[in-house]
Amino acid sequence: MDYTKHSIGNPALLLFFVGFLYLCIWSSSFTSSFNVFRKESLSTLSNTTDIYVPQDDLEQALSKASMANKTVIITIINKAYADQDITADTTMLDLFLESFWLGEDTRSLLDNLLIVAVDQTAYDRCLFLRLNCYRLETDGVDFGGEKVYMSEDFIKMMWRRTQFLIEVLKRGYSFIFTDTDVMWLRNPLARLSKNETDDLQISTDEFLGDPKSEKHFINTGFYYLRSNNKTIKLLKRWYAMKDNSTGLKEQDVLLNLIQGGISRELNLSVRFLDTLYFSGFCQDSKDLRAVTTVHANCCRSITAKVNDLKAVLRDWKRFKKYTSYKRLANVTASLGWTGHFGCWKSWSVATKNIG
Known about the structure:
Order of helices and strands: HHHEHHEHEHEEEEHHHEEEHH
Oligomer: single chain
Structural class: alpha/beta
């Protein structure tokens, strides 16, 4: 009797005991619920493994720009090509992009164009234009300014380009490489060989009539390379020669390899592109009704290239206007190109004054 009275008579102790019991039950219930939620969450995550996650920024950029057959259009720019000088009214990049707008069946190809920027200004400009962009880092080297043809920095930048393209091939992507001073007036895919045995299709300074002749002087400003073991070996061999090629640009080294029999050694099929379609300032296309690309080659400075490429686009717009009128259809056959006066003069200007 005394025991019962004592236990009931201590309400504080009873309240503490009830509260403790409640906390134990709530904690057990919460832990159980959390474990169920965690299991469900992990189960949900395990079902997303079929979603492709790019390994790095380059893979993400390539996959975004890629065509269905893993082909990408690649160009490389620096500040000198992307940013306007105080006295300039346009840039090389602006002209390049305008050609896709003005060209025939070329606008959609911008989705497949990857712009590789070698400095921050060029990269920022690319992002501002909402294009497919990739920032190519090179420690200890400033690629931002104009690199005059055959200068030491020009040669370094060309070799860095080759090194980058090896990585693209190794990832299984075929590519069309185009300099930014190439105007795309028609879709080149319609003119490139669709023969899958052709490993390399490359532009020429002057077409000699035979697309298989290794006597051509090649131009690495525009070429198509199919990704396979043979082309990877070709570019690796090419790049490995950079330190033993003093005074030569990378284009010269590749030319020596081709004329030295690398195609037979690696069982490569090389096709040299006709300047009727893939033309340049070295040898103009003779027919605006057939021309596909126009390259500002055989030219030494950016200022000269920009001025003469503006004339190319004016000639192209005039041609398109004439072709829109049936009564003027016969006139288009006789239309030609404005002279490349700026580029012709650029060779006589002292290097220190170029730009």
